[in-house]
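So, read this over?
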Amino acid sequence: MFLTISTYGNPERPATDLGFLLHKHPERAQAFSTSHGTAHVLYPEASAERCTAALLLEVDPVALVRRGKGKGRGGAPDSALAQYVNDRPYAASSLLAVALAKVFKTALHGECKAMPERAAAPLPLRVEVPVLPARGGAELVRALFGPLGWNTVDAEPVALDAEFPEWGDSRYVRLVLEGELRLADALNQLYVLLPVLDDAKHYWVAPDEVDKLLRAGDGWLAGHPERKLITARYLSRRWSLAREATERLELVRLAEAEGLDVEDVDNAVDETTDTEERPVPLAERRREAIVAALRDAGATRVLDLGCGQGQLVQALLKDPRFTEIVGVDVSARALGAAARRLRLDRMGERQAARVKLTQGSLAYTDKRLAGYDAAVLSEVIEHLDLPRLPALEYAVFGSARPRTVVVTTPNVEYNVRWESLPAGHVRHGDHRFEWTRAEFRAWAAGVAGRYGYGVAFAPVGPDDPEVGPPTQMAVFSRTGTRTENGDATRTENGDGSRTENGDATRTENGDATRTENGDATRTENGDGSRTETRTDETSKGVTA
């Protein structure tokens, strides 16, 4: 991956001063080792009129995966070929941002002992990034860089194949920025916005990333129109960190508006006497309700089906009674995010033995899912098209058959209480449906009847007397009685008896008595005797 920074000058103020500001001599090519490759700094041109510094990062994608041990941004929890065949060596991303911070650390801080006045003054700059992933397209690139003082923000889409223009454009752009800015400001903007546009990070996002974001965004991020998007993407959508960053940035904005220091603005509350309780988020209440239901069921080995980014898996790991937790999701990217959230690559051996992330589709039966105490479908069913729902029902209730199944889904009746939700809209763009309480209960009762489960219902969140709770939960408990209809009907009873009806009727009872009806009737009695009666023979009642 490649990035160039150019500036212009004259004999009195030569452009080669860029070498002093970057602390890299224009007459030398230098190499620096980074955690994911080798960064090279060289100068394709260096004259008094124009000077260009280039940062070239060589990344080995195979070493990236191996170093990540199949977890985190560098790898994935499955053995997909995408781990090795990807854009990491070519497209600017968080890898380049990390190299930028290491190689030009002093310049990022705006320090230059040799020329402090040049470091503090704006320079005519031109920045080029030949291949930049842009999730959001060229319009988002302009929306991010446009408000930052650049005269020109040129984001030219890169065609999928120049010889086949009908294939359209890729998600990459060629970025050119021109304007007069302090070099430190330009570098800090690139450090933040390169991973934001890629919308992915190759490393675990720890709480100290909030400090890094605020430090690099000092002077421009607090008032940026896209502050919310930048914050969320930079912090890999870790909402607790994004919320903290947003609150701190708002303080910065208010302080700047009032001409005060942040400490003077943030002094209204004495934390030692703050007793106000904050409302508990619905997602947290949902996890608490699910964990409580699993505890009541006595489950120790649990499946989280459609685990997403692993929030429930993380909550279950905190309780030692859950000895085995398996997160299943069809999305490898979601599983990668879950692995980062759980810090699987840093987890102790004993804790790591309790958790497993695996890729799988709930539309198909999977022998790996059989034999568990409980399964959870938290906010999952509404993401399926209704015609595909029976396949999920059979895969979970018919094939895997855990003793307990916990299902949560939105209550569409409660949507009128969301002020920010337009009338007639579902809560998430990917929801295929949202049920009323009556519809959910009817579906749950049908599933319970078909697969031999009892079902109980519970509200999650505030239970509104008119429209009910925001989330509805059903807890299915296997009763031991199951009926299957096809060529034969089979009933399994809790006392060990079984009845099958088809071409023949067969009954097995717990007291070792068995009756088969077809061309013949045979009875085995608990005392060891057996009676056979054949309807097509004159001799009947043969006893042994």
